[in-house]
C-alpha cells in the first residue's frame, strides 16, 4: 500500500514537471514573435529619430544634393553661418602636425597633415553620415568623406583600411578607418580637411590639435572674411619664393631631404629650431622625414 502511494506521488510530480515545461515552452514560443516585433519597432524608431535629426540639421539647408560620386563640389556659400562645434571628437590622438593648410610648393594644400602610424585608429570628428568611401591612387589614397549635421564635411585621406560604408550613419568618435600611407603620400600620416559647401577651410579654424580640443563651442563663418583670406593665400602662391610688389616677404617652405634635421634646416634657412617648431606646431624632438614640408618664415 505504501509503495502504491509513493508511486502515485512520483507520477504526479513527473506530470507536473512536464506540464510546467510545456507551459514554459509555450510562453517562449509566444514571446519570440513579440520580441521580434519589438525589435522591429525599436529599429524603426531609431531610423525615424535619425531622419528627424537629419531633417533638422543645418547641413540639410546648405547642400543641394546627396551624392556618392565626388569627393567635394563647390556650391553657394551662405553670407554667414554658425557652425556648432560641440559634441566633437579629435580625428586622431596625435598632436603632431607635419604640414599646415595654405600655400605649398606653388599650390594650395587644402588640409593639414597629422603624423599617425599605419594602423592607428582614425575617428569621425562629428556625428553625421558617410558620403564617400573610395580609393584614389594619385591623391587621397583610401579616403572617407563625412557630411556632418553641423554643416561641415570632413575628409580623411591616405588611410590603410576603411571601417565604414557609404551612407552609413556615424557618431562623433566612431572609428572610420586606420592610419596609412596610400595614394600620393611620402610617409604614413592623416590628411584631414574641413569643408563648407565644398570649400576648404583651414582645420585649425576649428581644431586645436596641440591641446586636443576645439577652439570654441561654435564658429561664425563669414563669407566676406573667407574670400579675403582665400585671395591672400592665392597671392602668396603666385609670389612664393620671392617678395611681393610692395617688397614684403611672403611665406616660404622647405622640403626635407634625406639626412636633414631641424638643426641643419635652421642653419640652411638662416633661422632657429624654435622658430621652425613654432610655425609648424611641432616639438624639438620630432624626427623630420624626407618629403616633409616645413614652413620656415
Explain what this protein looks like in three dimensions.
The protein is of the alpha+beta class. The protein starts with a helix and ends with a strand. It is globular. The strands form six sheets. Strands 2, 5, 7, 8, 9, 11, 13 and 14 form an eight-stranded antiparallel beta sheet that branches.
Which properties best describe this structure?
single chain, 297 residues, alpha+beta, eight-stranded antiparallel beta sheet
Largest sheet: 8 strands, antiparallel
Shape: globular
Structural class: alpha+beta
What proportion of the residues form beta strands (DSSP E)? 25-35%
User: Helical proportion?
Assistant: 25-40%
Distance between the termini: 110 Å
Runs in which pLDDT lies below 50 for 5 or more consecutive residues are 241-250
What is the N-to-C order of secondary-structure elements (H for helix, E for strand)?
Answer: HHEEEEEEEEEEEEEEEEEHEHHE
Number of strands: 19
Rg over CA atoms: 29 Å
Tally of individual helices: 5
Average pLDDT figure = 82
Strand and helix layout:
Blueprint: H1 2-56, H2 59-62, E1 80-84, E2 97-99, E3 102-104, E4 107-109, E5 112-114, E6 121-123, E7 128-136, E8 141-148, E9 152-159, E10 161-162, E11 169-170, E12 175-178, E13 190-196, E14 199-201, E15 207-208, E16 213-214, E17 218-222, H3 223-238, E18 253-255, H4 262-268, H5 273-280, E19 293-295
Antiparallel strand pairs: 1-17, 2-5, 3-4, 5-13, 6-12, 7-8, 7-11, 8-9, 9-13, 10-12, 13-14, 15-16, 18-19
Amino acid at each position: 500500500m505504501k509503495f502504491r502511494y509513493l508511486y502515485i506521488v512520483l507520477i504526479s510530480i513527473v506530470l507536473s514537471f512536464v506540464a510546467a515545461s510545456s507551459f514554459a515552452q509555450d510562453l517562449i514560443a509566444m514571446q519570440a514573435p513579440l520580441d521580434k516585433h519589438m525589435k522591429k519597432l525599436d529599429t524603426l524608431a531609431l531610423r525615424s529619430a535619425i531622419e528627424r535629426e537629419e531633417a533638422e540639421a543645418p547641413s540639410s539647408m546648405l547642400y543641394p544634393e546627396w551624392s556618392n560620386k565626388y569627393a567635394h563640389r563647390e556650391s553657394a556659400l551662405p553670407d554667414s553661418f554658425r557652425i556648432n562645434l560641440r559634441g566633437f571628437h579629435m580625428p586622431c590622438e596625435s598632436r603632431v602636425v607635419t604640414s599646415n593648410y595654405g600655400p605649398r610648393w606653388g599650390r594650395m594644400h587644402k588640409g593639414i597633415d597629422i603624423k599617425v602610424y599605419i594602423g592607428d585608429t582614425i575617428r569621425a570628428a562629428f556625428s553625421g553620415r558617410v558620403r564617400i568611401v573610395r580609393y584614389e591612387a594619385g591623391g587621397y589614397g583610401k579616403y572617407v568623406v563625412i557630411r556632418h549635421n553641423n554643416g561641415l564635411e570632413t575628409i580623411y585621406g591616405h588611410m590603410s583600411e576603411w571601417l565604414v560604408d557609404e551612407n552609413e550613419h556615424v557618431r562623433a568618435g566612431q572609428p572610420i578607418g586606420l592610419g596609412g600611407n596610400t595614394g600620393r603620400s611620402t610617409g604614413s600620416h592623416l590628411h584631414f580637411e574641413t569643408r563648407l559647401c565644398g570649400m576648404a577651410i583651414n582645420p585649425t579654424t576649428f581644431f586645436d590639435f596641440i591641446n586636443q580640443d576645439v577652439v570654441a563651442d561654435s564658429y561664425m563663418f563669414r563669407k566676406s572674411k573667407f574670400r579675403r583670406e582665400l585671395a591672400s593665400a592665392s597671392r602668396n602662391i603666385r609670389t612664393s619664393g620671392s617678395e611681393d610688389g610692395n617688397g614684403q616677404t611672403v611665406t616660404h617652405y622647405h622640403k626635407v631631404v634625406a639626412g636633414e634635421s631641424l638643426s641643419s634646416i635652421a642653419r640652411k634657412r638662416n633661422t632657429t629650431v624654435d622658430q621652425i617648431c613654432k610655425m609648424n606646431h611641432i616639438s624639438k624632438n620630432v624626427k623630420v622625414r624626407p618629403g616633409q614640408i616645413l614652413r620656415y618664415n
